[in-house]
Design goal:
With about 450 residues, the protein is α/β, with parallel strands linked by helices. The protein has 13 helices and 11 strands. The strands form 2 sheets. It has a 7-stranded mixed β-sheet with strand order 1-7-6-5-4-2-3, with helices on both faces.
């Protein structure tokens, strides 16, 4: 039985088929790549050794998920044309694929109608959502939790809109009492609800915030750049499931396919539930050329030039791995969440570590080192981070409020002052392989931790 073709064989076959579509054109010279180019590419490969092994299961630090091979291949194939999805003349096929790929994401969040497009990433997608909110209610404030991504305060500043940070509870979710107190001022026009904070993966109570909307009349923007795809997962907590099920009531949402969607950077997506907001974008620029009377994507985007290759890669991935509950893509998300829960329980049983009050809601796990003070705990976390990296386990560090870690635990020796922060260890178990590798990851973490504690005892 012949072996299946490898990545580069499949890409070469597709490249030849692409070139056949333009075979009627007379030959045109192309820039050759000779020995000099080969030497440069070897140098490039050598320079790229100076990276963490992001694609390997032993990389469990930041939310860096390797693109699926079909996304890499489709992106590379599209780069033979280098389409620009700003206007139809720059990317006819890739624009159509973007419309289809974005519609698939809208179906994923149960929006029967929508307006939306891909962007260079979550930051610009969030900017666009808040720009629309500011156009609809000029001058009024934007509120987000104190664990929301810092980009929201920056974006509000860029847009000239007041920004208010809402306190969170000890489980990392937005405090509803604090939010309602703020809404009574009638100065808030938009509430940003985070479904999956980047630090801890906390899921704000969107379902309960929706219930406040009829009373206080504000827009709801869902920042699900990191967590949006988890709406497909079947193993969420009851709290998280209720929040994701409330997405159809939101006004706008951002999802980043270049996080859990298996895409290369940069690929974000902004969606609006009401297509009528498209009127805010309409323009008639004489320098924008397009040959179709259909609405082109440049007319519903603040960005102009955008990589059509991103749309091609996302479309191809969705054909292979549809965004549907129970499918292979959804099972990969569920695997990551299961791994996070298992790691959380192991950490809770270890005398060396302290876990937060709340179990992981998605696939991010944070933990503190059990030490008498926040300063000592932070120093030990840095040393364990370094020692684990020496053993090829790559974690991350995060500075979090110390209040997230209960002092009532029988094993806890940690004492901290109100408002104090602590440097924690953090792991994002977003690769489906992480569940299979969990025993190996844990053995390295235990060995690295024991080595650091033994060294600290001798100092």
């Amino acid at each position: 039985m012949p072996e299946p073709p490898n990545f580069f064989d499949l890409l070469a076959q597709a490249q030849r088929h692409l070139e056949e579509g333009f075979s009627s054109l007379p030959p045109a010279p192309s820039a050759p790549l000779g020995e000099d180019a080969a030497a440069i590419l070897r140098d490039v490969a050598t320079r790229l050794h100076d990276n963490y092994p992001y694609g390997h299961p032993l990389y469990a630090g930041q939310m860096l998920k390797p693109p699926h091979p079909i996304a890499r291949a489709a992106y590379a194939l599209a780069m033979s044309i280098n389409p620009n999805n700003h206007a139809l003349d720059g990317g006819r096929a890739s624009s159509a694929m973007e419309v289809e790929a974005v519609a698939a994401l809208a179906r994923m969040v149960h929006w029967p109608q929508h307006l939306g497009h891909l962007s260079s990433g979550g930051t610009f997608a969030n900017l666009e959502a808040l720009w629309v909110a500011g156009q609809l209610v000029p001058g009024k404030g934007i509120a987000a939790s104190d664990q929301a991504h810092y980009t929201h305060s920056r974006i509000s500043s860029v847009l000239g809109l007041p920004f208010v940070s809402v306190p969170t509870r000890n489980d990392g979710r937005m405090d509803l009492d604090a939010l309602e107190h703020l809404l009574r001022t009638k100065e808030i026009a938009t509430v940003v609800v985070t479904l999956g904070t980047t630090a801890t993966g906390a899921v704000d109570p969107l379902d309960q915030i929706v219930s406040l909307q009829s009373q206080y009349s504000f827009r709801i923007h869902v920042d699900a750049a990191y967590g949006g795809y988890f709406t497909l997962a079947s193993n969420l907590s009851l709290q998280a499931r209720a929040a994701f099920d409330a997405i159809p009531h939101a006004d706008s949402i951002v999802v980043d396919p270049h996080k859990h969607g298996l895409q290369p950077y940069g690929c974000g997506c902004v969606l609006f539930r009401d297509p009528a907001v498209g009127r805010l974008y309409k323009h008639d620029s004489p320098y924008t050329y397009f040959s179709s009377p259909e609405l082109h994507l440049g007319e519903i985007s603040l960005e102009c030039s955008r990589a059509g290759a991103s749309a091609v890669a996302l479309w191809a991935t969705q054909q292979l791995l549809p965004c549907v509950p129970g499918g292979a893509f959804a099972r990969g998300l569920e695997s990551g969440r299961t791994a996070a829960l298992q790691l959380y329980h192991r950490l809770g049983e270890s005398p060396f570590f302290l876990t937060p009050i709340a179990a992981p809601q998605l696939d991010i796990v944070v933990w503190a080192v059990n030490a008498p003070t926040a300063e000592q705990s932070s120093i030990l976390a840095q040393r364990i981070f370094d020692e684990a990296a020496q053993r090829n386990l790559h974690l991350a560090l995060a500075k979090l409020p110390a209040r997230l870690f209960p002092q009532t635990s029988q094993k806890s020796t940690l004492q901290f002052q109100p408002g104090q922060t602590i440097t924690c260890l953090r792991s994002v178990l977003m690769k489906p392989e992480h569940l299979l590798w969990l025993d190996h990851l844990w053995s390295i973490l235990e060995a690295a931790t024991r080595a650091v504690f033994e060294a600290s005892m001798t100092q």
